[in-house]
Fold:
Amino acid sequence: MSDRIRNYIIDNNLKPGDKLPSEKDLTEALSVSRTVVRESLKSLQAMGMIRIKAGEGIYVDDSTLKSVHNLLDYHWKTNGIQMKELFETRKVLELGAIKLAVENNDFEQIEEMDKWNQLYLEKINQNENPRAADIGFHRALFKATGNSTFYQLNEFTLEYFNKSFLGAINDSEKLIGSFEEHKEVIDWIKAKNVENAQKVMLRHFEPIQKFLDRYEDLKGANYETDREN
Structure:
């Protein structure tokens, strides 16, 4: 029954904010009991596809990746953030974003990446934390894809990623290197060279990879010590 209501939304090209028929109308249209319709609506609301407003009606919700977000949030809060898995996810997203950004060729957003990178350099030179500018750069990259779903995927992982790797890079020389890598990525995107831009992004992630390797080694050493004790 949930599938039939979901198909109704798709077949009628309903958008977030559009109103669905009432429970009564759905009961008559689908030739089922009101109880079945009500349970199906509750299920779809839990999935983030619809929103039921008491006294107002049933509306299509902004369902884009909401259920995925809830699932990830629940998983990470329950099991803890698996840093290696999170890092691998970020790499895949960033490399994919580069490909889409080249294909989309949104000059305005590519220039926005450059503006954030210049601010990143200013913060470094002023001995201030460049974290916000770094986040701005990567967000601009995902906006440059022109793919709102991809952008939202980035947003879902960004908060956890930055919390996990907050102290991974804190040396001023390495921060300058990060600025230069940002610039190289921008230049290669402008040149529409996906392969070279992705290579630079992988190099950009190397300090975090080394941080993770040290973390895994330390965790393994602690595990062996606990076993011996």
